[in-house]
Each structure stands twice: as structure tokens, then as C-alpha cells.
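Following the same procedure, the fold was encoded as C-alpha cells, giving this record:
***
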Amino acid sequence: MVWPQRRTVGPGCTVASPRPSFPEFLKTPIRDLGLRIEGTRLEPIITEFMAELETAGVPIRPRCYLSTEWGVPFGSVSIGMPFYLARPDLTELHAERVGHVEGFNRADILRYLRHEMGHVVNYAYKLYDREEWVKLFGAITQPYLEEYRPSPFSKRYVRHLPGWYAQKHPDEDWAETFAVWMTPPSGSENGGVKGWRDEYAAWPTALAKLEYCDHTLRSLRDEPRPAVMEELDEEVGQVPYSLDQFYQNQIGTPEPMPSGLAGALRAIFEDVEEGVAKKKASDLLRRMEPGLLDNVFRWTGHFPERTRVLVRHLAQLADQLGQVYAEPDEARVMVAVTTLVTALAMNYVHTGTYLA
């Protein structure tokens, strides 16, 4: 992810000191939480990431720091990492408040670091000004919109972060391409290691971008290292607002849900015969919520915070309708719920509404 301009955004690591009582904790300015990378689970992951850069032959190193979200301020070589990843209590709080954690484990954090490193390389060497870069990825001056409508499984783009993120903007397309290029090969095929050339062999446009990334990174090793800027955006020690204020800004005002979903729920939660063990439909929907947030986002691009509101609306509606299901039918019902939520999400991504 990238910050085109400066802007305000609205397991186990060791906790250095006991957490205050919960209400006081939520009202504490983030800058006063004493957060740092050193001594947390992030430190060895960053060390591993730096070793990956060395192995890949990337000729520049970023500065990693804690901020309010993942990002690289435009023109800098500094990678902001979400502060809530530095302590398990904050990670738990973020999952509770937002429902989705960008960087929930080591592999996921490395995935985001590789993506952000693509921005670092792009800005350090101003690749976005090069003619071949513009031909392959587009003009970096294109409007950077938070809302975008991806085309799932398009062979013009690599797949790395969830939500078909490469399709958001030319800068993200490059960052995702770089991340795939940098990811160490894994798996085996006929006794050999499978890498990006194998994976994207049948995707000529995406492969051309990867080949460009490969020969560009090789050529950069022979170029003088550029003068780089280590600008920080919302460094955690400077953030004056509290956790409560941060999450109020993150969550915002929920969009109104459409009417007309009762019929869809009735089609899933049919009448249950007498004598069969019954379960509440709303309990199942709430239990399914965490998995739906991640997977619906990965395959449709429908933002997790929206899916959360949608699923909770369906659960509330199921309660109003008094819907239940037969306990032996739970697997079938879960498939039906997943299909419904995915279909609604896909409709929203492509039309801007759940029900046309």
C-alpha cells in the first residue's frame, strides 16, 4: 500500500509493562503507549526480511517504523508498519474492533513487507518515470482511489495481497509484481523448485511485468545508490489521539443495508421438522463472521469492514425472523451462507449496491 501524499488515516510478543485498566487504556494517547519494534515479534521478522533482500540482490534497504497502517510515504524509503502488530493485546483489540488484521502472523507480515518494498524501490530509483515502466504499469499520476472494482482472476496482474490489490493503481501493480518477484521460491515440480516463471507461464502480460522487474533489479545493482529520504508519516511516538479515537475513525458510519434479504435467508434456513435438533441461524452467522471477512475480501475485493456489517445485518435479520436450522444440516447451511455473502459482495464490488 502507498501513501501518494501525506495524510491522516482515519503469536507472541512480550508486553514491556502491564496494561492499565481497559477504559483508561483506550483513552491513552497512542504516543504514550511506549510502542517500539525492538523486543517484539516484529524484530526477528524484519531481520528475516532484510536477509531476503540480500538474497534477492535488492540494492537498497528500508527503514521500518511503527505507524497507524502499512505504507510508504511517497518519495521515501521508510516502511510504516501498523502499531497494533507490536503487542498481542493491541492485535486482539484491532481484530475485535475492525474484524481484520493486516499481518496476523509471520508469513502475512513478510507478505506485506515485500509489497511495501516494491514502493521503496520504485521511489528510490524513480522507476515510475521510465518509459518501459509506464508502458507496462501505466502512469503513476492516475487518480489513487480507495474504491476500485477488480476483475477477479485477470491474467494481466499477479496475485499477492488479497482483494486483487494489483488492480488498484499502477503503483500497486508494480509493488505487487515486485513482491511476487521477491518471494522466495517454494514447492516442487518434477523435483525442481517452482518460482514465478512457472506460476505465470500462461499469463503473458503478468509475466512480462515480472520479467521487467527481474532485469530492472539486476541493472540497479550496477547503478549508484540514489540519495534517499527517510520521511515518516504518523510515526507512533507522535500520534496524539487515543485508541478509541483511532478506531472511531477506522470504523466510520456503517452504510445502510438494503431491504429484500429476508427471502434469501428463508431460502437457506428452511422449516425444520419436529423432533430434529435445532440451532439458531444468527449464532451460526456470527460464528462464521471471522472466516468470511478474510476470504470474501481475498476473492472479491469487498472490504472486510463492509462484510462485517453485512453479516451482522443478516444475523440480526435472522433473529427477527426467528430462523433456525437442523443441526445435521450445518455443513450445507454454511456453504449456502458463504455463497450468499460472496454473491452479495461481488455484486457490491461491481455495481456499488448489494441488490440491483
In short: The chain has 13 helices and six strands. The first helix runs from residue 22 to 27. Strands lie at 63-67, 78-82, 188-189, 192-193, 278-280, 324-326.
